[in-house]
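Listing 4. Sequential folding, example run.
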Amino acid sequence: MAIEDRIAEMIEPALTDMGYGLVRVRVLGTKQITLQIMADRLDEAAITVDDCADISRAVSALLDVDDPIEKAYSLEVSSPGIDRPLTRLKDFERYAGFEAKIELESLVGGRRRFRGILGGLNGTLVKIETETGAFEVPFEEIRVEASADRRVD
């Protein structure tokens, strides 16, 4: 199991209990390691600096018990921001109508990269309308780098 997945498993239940959704966990660097935790509020309100501080305290306590990172590291907690990463199936439904970039592990319709307007879901297929037509791509083929930019009305 990847270190990010292990950390996500450790902290996600506590964050959910606190009213937050885990968006992404990343471990960056080799000499100076940074553990990035990205979260949002389950009530969909804007995340605040105080929210990030609460998450940081909770995550620090959990990681102190079962320290999955062997070296010293810095903990960084943030909100998803403007170019929001889409990491969960429900993100693609929630951000229907937003312009998005999606990159796949393998080809769908002869291509791997898509930029267009999200159209929600069809089961576990993500719908996206591009300049060259509509596509449905399997969620499990999407790389973590998928992101929503802005709502298109």
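-- end of first protein; second protein begins --
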Amino acid sequence: MSGEKVLLFHFTEESQLKAVRTILFLMQIPERIVRKEEYARPIKELLEEAGENQTLKANPMMRELDGQMIVFAGISGDKLDSLLSLLRSNPACGSIPYKAVLTEMNQSWSAYALFEELKREHEAMNKQRK
């Protein structure tokens, strides 16, 4: 895996997905929409080109995430800051609370594991604000 890429999980509203994809296109950042059938695979595998062409059978045991998640890979600090600012300032993008940057630690996690960790962190931050 090399270069910049963004993984998009559980974007069900077409207008929101279009707004996010437009920003990524304008910033010249490739994106990939991840299907729930792929959620058990390691995040690192989802970023590899070969993973996009795999045919996966529908598995009724694969559940959808409880919310949307974005994973940023290989995007530098200033560019990531600009991207996040654009996503926040565009009302069509809506609120996307679960965002992560690919790290050595989380690259082997499944989407489910990463989502649960982000959810715990999000809940902890909201408790601190109260």
